[in-house]
Amino acid sequence: MIETAVILAAGMGSRIRERTGYNPKGFLQLDEIPLIEHSISKMLTAGIKKIFIGTGFMKEAYEKLAYKYEQIQCVYNPDFETTGSMYTLYRLKDVINEDFLLVESDLIYERSALSILMNHGYKDVILSSKLTDSGDEVLIEIDEKHHLVNMSKAKADLMNISGELVGITKLSYSTFQKICSHIELLPNFHKMDYENGIVAIADQIPFYVHQENDLVWCEVDDEGHWTRAVQFIYPLIKARENVLKSINRTILLNPGPATTTDTVKYAQVVEDICPREEEFGRVMEFISNELTEFVGNLEEYTTVLFGGSGTAAVESILSSVIDDQAILIINNGAYGKRMCKIADVYGLEFFEYASPVDEAIDLSSLEQFINNVPTKLSHLAVVHCETSTGLLNNLEAVGELCQKYKLSMIVDAMSSFAAIPIDMNKMNISYLAASSNKNLQGMAGVSFVIADKAQLEKTKQYKQRNVYLNLFTQYHYFKLTNQMQFTPPVQTLYALKQAILETKWEGIQSRYKRYTKSWETLIEGVSRLGLKHLVDKNSHSRIITSIIEPSQPTYDFNEMHDYFYRNGFTIYPGKVNTLQTFRIANIGDISYLDIERFIRLLERYLEWLREGNKHETI
Ligand SMILES: *Cc1c(COP(=O)(O)O)cnc(C)c1O
């Protein structure tokens, strides 16, 4: 059992001196508690009984802490200005007499980081995470046994990179002694950092590198790190450590609302706040900016938030941004059709370009259609992922046509946003609609429009057809006040903020990779069971799949739905009029393992159906 920890805290922290003032880095505060005390309290909770702090620069601050915590003992490195962290550690050589955790003083981390190492079977373990690209990171190279080969800040020093040094390491007493007696003979001994000390004997002693990709942590070396820590890392850690009781997990295979994390669910439980308070305005401003930055830059684009389901955003665009010219709407599924209906109800002059529901758009025929429209077109609207079939429309290609014919492109990206990478600028998108509850993995109730600001500003003079959904007034009001015009869904927005942090943490590319793996598992599974799906792999979104229903005459969708529902899975009916289909979405906080379970259940169901054992319930 590990009961000792060492915190290396002698450094000068010169790259963040302005912010730290007369204190060492470890005294930067989060929620009015110094980083070092966050760390100490995690250690004590984990069962650490003795904490040595290797001090140097401004040692008094740490010595004061030793009065507050009986577990702390400071060991001073008087040469801190000219020595590296290895030397600070070396000075503890005669003080420590057991295995210990070695922790850097400027780390913010989840408590699980400690328990992973404390419970680890190996005696010398280096904790490694996925790459954070935060700048100044120490990269790790390992061999096929997960043993350390090298660590360095310079990529060129390493043959391959397996991960990044977190700065929390378990060292056994004997290894520590060996490091000390090995390095004291080296010429550059005083200048070494502790990771160089470890690398120096890595060919003699196996250090196990434990890779933990989902560990939330960061180091604070400069202002950029600090901003990231305050806005992103610390809130994520707090949310994760705040989950009091995990909530029964159901697997939603409908195309949103999707399965959410417990941290998103709990983010809704907050003190009551009047949404007109500045504090809440800042929450919405953060959400608006972060959503924009998923697909564009803040100079050219802006996100306008509404309380409402996703359709509100689509309706807002269509009823707000078209003046007296005409719009072309591509209809290749239920959501394209819905846009036609909205255009019709608002009395817009629109031209419907109908395209097959299960095939890519024929671009030359679309171009011909554009050329043949009898009046002047100003806009073109298209759905990105047609959720009714899973068909993915080619936005780049449609965007190029829009550029050629000087049309503003409107995109319903409801079921692609935050999974399939989108670049508004590159794709030539003027207005994009999406919502909180699909790939963002938030709660239902917020819909939003991401708009090209210059174009949106021009709509100011247009004759107004709407009130609640007017895009320009909502945008303008928010710009002046950080407020929505009408009551926002307060708790849903807190959940959305958390969902955004988690989306950023995972990364949109990685999220799409995870979804893709689930989708491949699905396609492979249903094909093996003899079922066919509608849309060809090449134009498939890998988000939602329309599957042709089993042909047994006794098959009944509702019965199958209820069977899955009893087993914790929710499936969805089809939405193609001419074909008998049901739909499976693979979005949300689920993985291919859930899809494997789904396939096993489906297999059992199809067997039951084939055997015709209708009298026996399944
Ligand atoms: C989900 C979805 C919508 C919006 O549906 P709501 O029920 O209003 O949330 C719009 N377009 C597409 C393509 C969708 O997938």
Automatic annotation (TrEMBL):
Q: Where is the Aminotransferase class V domain?
A: 266-536
Molecular functions per Gene Ontology: 2-aminoethylphosphonate-pyruvate transaminase activity; nucleotidyltransferase activity
EC assignment: the record states: 2.6.1.37
Q: What keywords were assigned to this record?
A: Aminotransferase, Pyridoxal phosphate, Pyruvate, Transferase
- Broad enzyme group: transferase
Give the residue spans that cross the bilayer.
none
Cofactor names: pyridoxal 5'-phosphate
**Stored Gene3D superfamilies:** Aspartate Aminotransferase, domain 1, Spore Coat Polysaccharide Biosynthesis Protein SpsA, Chain A, Type I PLP-dependent aspartate aminotransferase-like (Major domain)
Listed CDD domains:
PC_cytidylyltransferase (cd02523)
Residue limits of the MobA-like NTP transferase domain?
Answer: 5-120
> For this protein, what reaction is catalysed?
(2-aminoethyl)phosphonate + pyruvate = phosphonoacetaldehyde + L-alanine
What's a GO biological-process term for it? organic phosphonate catabolic process
Tell me which family the UniProt entry assigns to this protein.
Belongs to the class-V pyridoxal-phosphate-dependent aminotransferase family. PhnW subfamily.
What this protein is reported to do is described as: Involved in phosphonate degradation.
Describe the subunit structure: Homodimer.
Name of the protein described by the UniProt record = 2-aminoethylphosphonate--pyruvate transaminase
Give the species this sequence originates from. Answer: Metabacillus litoralis
The primary gene name is phnW
